[in-house]
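Hi R.,

As promised on Friday, here is the backbone we talked about, encoded as structure tokens. Could you run it through your design pipeline when you get a chance and send me back a sequence?
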């Protein structure tokens, strides 16, 4: 007679095997892509099973295979790490940047503004901003007198919203992209006239992939973004809610085709904020050909379902 504890371990192990196998077939069907985002959770769950399976050689063997497979999956996503060698760092002051998906329904504006002020960032990029955002964030415009915005349809519903880039320094060559199929504003870019040199800053908010329709739109957005970024000679960084973890093929496609680099901190979870540290990393800072990430961290809870990300970037 199998006791309930053994049944629970077998059920958990069976689920881990199915999820892990599904994650390695991402790219074949849209729903298989979703399994790849939870590599760290699979690692932790397999360690749990291992710790309590010494009475079953078969369970130990299977759990070990699951653990090794997922650790291999994590290692395969770890290329294109940005250099942090002091020899590669410009002696001029680094650029500090903050990104936050504010959440359309988050009204804790005071906490957001206080957090942004506390960072002293040069550039702030905010997504899911309502069209009347200036009414709530007007005090920030005294610190960040230069801004760029793009508005369209929200990712989740029909509320008009978009991305806002705030800067302490003048902006030029402003551009933006709206997905023509969904009217979703997913990218804006500007050249920043920073004391350390002029560079291109990009803010993004890609469509999620939880339905076949959205997955197709996300792939189109990734392809367009990668193609555009690969042609930019002054690109310092791309920041935003990619709705992708580093374990996803589309994330790796963006890094490879746009020649971007990432930081180890890109693996730190940012969503959902309420489940930290058990969430997944979908908000990122990626360095372009002109940038070098020298510091990166995940910020505190400011009322959104996303945590902010903070980075310092030197210009190459």
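Update: got your reply. Pasting your designed sequence below so it's all in one thread:
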């Amino acid at each position: 007679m199998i006791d309930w504890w053994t049944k629970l371990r077998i059920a958990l192990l069976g689920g881990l095997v199915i999820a892990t196998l599904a994650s390695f077939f991402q790219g074949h069907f849209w729903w298989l892509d979703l399994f790849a985002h939870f590599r760290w959770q699979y690692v932790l769950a397999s360690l749990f099973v291992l710790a309590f399976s010494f009475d079953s050689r078969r369970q130990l063997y299977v759990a070990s295979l699951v653990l090794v497979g997922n650790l291999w999956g994590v290692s395969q996503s770890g290329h294109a790490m940005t250099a942090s060698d002091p020899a590669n760092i410009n002696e001029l002051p680094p650029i500090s940047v903050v990104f936050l998906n504010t959440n359309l329904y988050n009204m804790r504006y005071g906490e957001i503004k206080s957090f942004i002020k506390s960072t002293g960032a040069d550039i702030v990029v905010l997504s899911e901003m309502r069209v009347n955002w200036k009414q709530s964030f007007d005090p920030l415009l005294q610190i960040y007198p230069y801004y760029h915005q793009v508005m369209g349809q929200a990712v989740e519903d029909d509320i008009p919203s978009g991305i806002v880039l705030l800067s302490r320094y003048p902006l030029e060559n402003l551009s933006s992209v709206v997905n023509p199929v969904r009217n979703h504003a997913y990218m804006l870019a500007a050249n920043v006239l920073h004391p350390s040199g002029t560079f291109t800053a990009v803010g993004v908010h890609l469509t999620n992939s939880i339905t076949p329709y959205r997955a197709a739109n996300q792939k189109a957005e990734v392809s367009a973004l990668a193609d555009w970024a690969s042609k930019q000679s002054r690109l310092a960084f791309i920041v935003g809610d990619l709705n992708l973890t580093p374990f996803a093929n589309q994330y790796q496609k963006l890094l490879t085709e746009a020649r971007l680099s990432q930081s180890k901190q890109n693996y730190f979870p940012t969503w959902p904020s309420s489940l930290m540290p058990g969430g997944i990393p979908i908000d990122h800072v990626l360095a372009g050909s002109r940038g070098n990430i020298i510091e990166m961290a995940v910020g505190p809870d400011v009322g959104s379902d996303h945590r902010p990300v903070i980075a310092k970037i030197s210009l190459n």
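One thing I noticed while checking it: The chain has two domains: 4-76, 86-315.

Thanks again,
M.
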